[in-house]
Amino acid sequence: MYLNDAATAAVVVSCLLLMFSYQPVMACNCPDISDIESFCSAENIVRLKVLKEIEPEPEPESEFEDEDEKPSSDYYHYKVRIEHVYKSSKGLTPQAEVDFRTPKVAELCYLNLYTGKQYLLDVQDYNGDLSANACSWIKRWERAQEYVKILSDGTLQSACRQDRNHA
After folding, report:
1. Residues 80, 96: contact at Cβ < 8 Å?
2. Which residue pairs form cystines in this protein (predicted)?
3. Which of 2, 61, 64, 133 is the most buried (most CB within 10 A)?
């Protein structure tokens, strides 16, 4: 009987340890929407060229009393040139060189960009700095020609109007 009680206690303790040590896992979870829905909901659609990856400015050490309060460098920072603006809610300018950031970690939906490559994508504009992640609509420029056509010939605008009328 003693062995049974000890085994039961061990199982209970193990379950309690597992229950209290559980940490929720964050993961990238992008909505499953069509290309047209992505275009219609995007505030900005641009073709940009990645000029270089830049290191973010380090924060002054004296600013943070506790090491845990320091902001982490969870973002890649790039210098990019906006080659063409297809849609802009804030007046993005072609040929402008701007800062661009994207998360580094999978939990924040990281996005790999390569220096020298061009991309067609929807971006967020934060006071002139651009941002995107893996949930943003993105195509490498070499594979984007069919999308450029619908952006240029008015098909996108027509599809967005139809979508709004059916909602």
Report:
1. no
2. 28-109, 30-135
3. 133
The reported pLDDT for the residue numbered 105 is: 81
Residues near 43 by beta carbon (within 8 Å), at least 6 away in sequence: 87, 88, 89, 90, 122, 124, 125
Contact between 147 and 35 (Cβ < 8 Å):
yes
Domains contained in the chain, number: 1
Residue 45 lies in a domain: yes
Residues spanned by the domain of 99: 35-57+72-166
The predicted-structure confidence for 61-96, as pLDDT tens digits, reads as follows 555 555 544 445 778 899 999 999 988 888 888 999
Residue 117 in domain: yes
In a domain? residue 129: yes
Q: Is the dihedral of CA 82, 86, 91, 93 positive or negative?
A: positive
Strand order in the sheet with 138-140: 124-126, 129-131, 97-103, 75-88, 44-54, 118-122, 138-140
pTM, to two decimals? 0.69
63 inside domain: no
CA proximity to 77, closest of 47, 46, 98: 98
Ligand-binding annotation for 28, yes or no, is yes
